[in-house]
Amino acid sequence: MLHLLVGISNANTVLLQESNVNESLQKVVEELGRATDVDRCYIFTNRIDTDGLLKLYYTHEWCNKGIEIQLGNPDLSGLEYAIFPGLYDALINQQAYYGLVKESENELFKEVMESQDIKAFLFTPIFCEGQFWGWMGYDDCQIERKWLPEEVEALYVVAKNIGIRLSREKSEYRFLHSQERFNLSVLGSQQGIWEWDVLEDKWYFSKIYMSMAGYTADEFEQTFEFAASIIHPDDKSKVVKAFDDYIHKRISEFSVEFRQLHKEGHCVWVRGSAVGKWDDEGKLLYLAGSHLDITRLKTQQQELEQQRNEFDYLINNLAEVVFRLNTANEFTFLNDYWYNLSGYTQEESTNKTICSFIADDDVEFMKKQFSLLESKANHAINIDVKLKHKDGNYRWVNVIASKFKSSFSDASAFAGSIIDINDRKEAQEREKELTELKSNFVSMASHQFRTPLTVIYSNIELIESYASKLEPKSLERFNIYASRVKGEIDRMTELMNNILLFGRYNAQELTVNLKPVELSALIERVLETYFSSQPDGRKIIFNSKGIKKIVELDELLFIYILTNIISNAFKYSAGKPNPELEIVYKKNEIDILVKDYGIGVPPDEKSKLFSSFYRASNTSTIQGSGLGLVIAKQFTELHKGNIKIDSELDKGTLVTLTLPDTHE
């Protein structure tokens, strides 16, 4: 028994001193094998296999001289407890299992043991952290040993010590792993760590903490005084107060942002936090904290703040209202110009609907517009309404709004602007009144002039019939005067007609009645009707290029355009070759070119040709109103076309009329 106890003592020493747990188990097997004088000492380890079943694995072994080694025998690993009835139940209940093989009632167990020449056995269970980890076995192959209870108990104590060592190994592993993870997380977070052992009054600062301020371990004093000395003077009182309040439990947590002085002279923004441990009497025992460099964050915050201030300045200095509405059409934001426009402060207006500031007769219209804005995607409104000023007056405003999604909510909202257009609206009303007045005046004046001109013309014709009885010489002189009067009457009549057309256009009273027209046929008809018998005997030379097309035209307006341009071609080219007219049919448009070889236009006056009542300086001796080209241009634009004039003094003029091909 003494020899056994010495072996057990040696085994326990190995368990305490050997650093490698696997090697310690092997040495324990060897010590106990020799101490018990058995033929074989070994360890079976429990493992959950890939199939989810608990199985036995032969992991450690010592054999006496002449005994065959079984370690590595595949038949002894991956075994199920089911083949050894009663073994698992005994061991799981923390009971040693021992006896003579020949007395075993389990034939399979007896067969396995006898195949290895085992006559007696002892199994002691090993538990680790309350879990059945495995068991230690002792085999006798030469004698039928009967184990004494005290021997079994002593060896079972060793099995318990093995379990304690295994539990310690696991605890140490978890602790080291946890510490390693903590160190890695601290290192990865780039936080500076500090600790204060209050009882020993010792301070510790990590390398990252020191490096934040630009110091090495040799340069940094591990004292509270040194750490406090590198706090920015303007922040020191704030930090010290927060620290003192926390350690005396006046505040529940310590978290403060402040500037730390870097060794190189600049400042580093840090966020400091700490947690403490107090005893039952409320005395502080230990304090641990961290510093996080937030310089970049602070810089970004300052830049964002600056940008926000600049944005606010721009928004609040706009000469228009900028607003945001919630889904109930209530103001949630208004810039400063709202007060200038409405007389209401932002506080008076926030959470009130936009419609409550609109004239009653515009409210329903505005509600419908915002309802459309809510129901249609990518929709925007642009409306003119009257705004109620706080003083009771009304001002015309232009409201522009669109829908947007807030980044802080899934709900839709509206944003837009309100522009003061009161002066513009009043100017438009005045202009409209003036236009109507001018139009009425022109119409009245034209009609008033037309009657006396008609009377004069008819009387001239009457006088001409009586004058036919005059002497030839007197009759010739009379006819000259009568012709002049009739010419001036014709000129005045043409002027009145042009003024009426011009007035109707400006008053937007002209309606365009587009119909499909065969262009070439229409032009030929115009030439035959109006220009087939010129006093000087000249004719227009007509040509057409391309495939003839049907064109959408207002025939009356187009005839006016064409007759005006062709009349000018004849009028300003007296004594010159025949004018020319050419139609060029293109893919998407049609060009009508009228060319003459007349007096042309001075280069510096070309830009004025489409100005009302303007006539070129070289046309003073030629009759005209100065409105024909203006009206022709207006009528061309009503057809969504354009007119261009190219001219060279004393060589002629080319007028190009371009119309879109809109007929399908």
Automatic annotation (TrEMBL):
Question: If you read the UniProt record, what top EC class would you report for this enzyme, in one word?
Answer: transferase
One Pfam family of this chain: HisKA
Keyword hit for Transferase: yes
Report the residue ranges that make up the Histidine kinase domain in this protein.
Answer: 444-663
Q: Which GO MF term does the entry hold, naming one?
A: phosphorelay sensor kinase activity
Q: Which InterPro entries does the entry link to?
A: GAF (IPR003018), GAF-like_dom_sf (IPR029016), HATPase_C_sf (IPR036890), HATPase_dom (IPR003594), His_kinase_dom (IPR005467), HisK_dim/P_dom (IPR003661), HisK_dim/P_sf (IPR036097), PAC (IPR001610)
Q: Which UniProt keywords apply?
A: Kinase, Phosphoprotein, Transferase
According to the entry, every stretch annotated as the PAS domain falls at 204-250, 307-380
Record-linked SUPFAM superfamilies: ATPase domain of HSP90 chaperone/DNA topoisomerase II/histidine kinase (SSF55874), GAF domain-like (SSF55781), Homodimeric domain of signal transducing histidine kinase (SSF47384), PYP-like sensor domain (PAS domain) (SSF55785)
Ranges where the PAC domain occurs: 254-306, 381-433
The protein's matches in SMART domains, at most eight in alphabetical order, are given as: GAF, HATPase_c, HisKA, PAC, PAS
**So what does this thing catalyse?**
ATP + protein L-histidine = ADP + protein N-phospho-L-histidine
Q: What is its EC number?
A: 2.7.13.3
For the keyword ATP-binding, the answer is no
Quote the protein name from its UniProt record: histidine kinase
